[in-house]
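Standup notes
- DV: blocked on the single-chain target, sequence here:
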Amino acid sequence: FPRFALFVTSIAIGALAGCAGTQPQAPPSAPSDVATSADASPQAERETAEKPADAPPGELACRATSPVDGTSELFLVWEEGAAKGVLRKVAPSGEKSAQKVRAERYDGMIVADDPHEKDLTVHAALVRPIKGKAHMRVGGSDQPWAACE
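- DV (later): unblocked, structure below
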């Protein structure tokens, strides 16, 4: 038994000694053909901030945040006065959802509806100016308006 304990101890010490000689490696640097944040123009930075990499196609019509409902984003592709797009929501819990919508401009507002909704008074989202700033309401008329970012 004492020889076994000595054997195990010598293996453990040898393993530690082997690890002590290794140096942590620095992460590889970015290739020279990859743009860095220092190379980005202010306009490119704004566009990146406005439209996340995983954003659906189309123009970001509004991004509004509410402490209760989380963040809602309305992306639209306009074609001849009408649009198709996605209403994306991220709840405060982190749960994500995306709803296809169709939209039109009416009386200074953007009215986005679920394509399958038959009730003309029910809207997925509305975007309108309030005191000169765009605001969005997601859901029914009992929901609050939130300022677009």
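- Follow-up: DSSP finds two helices and eight strands in the chain.
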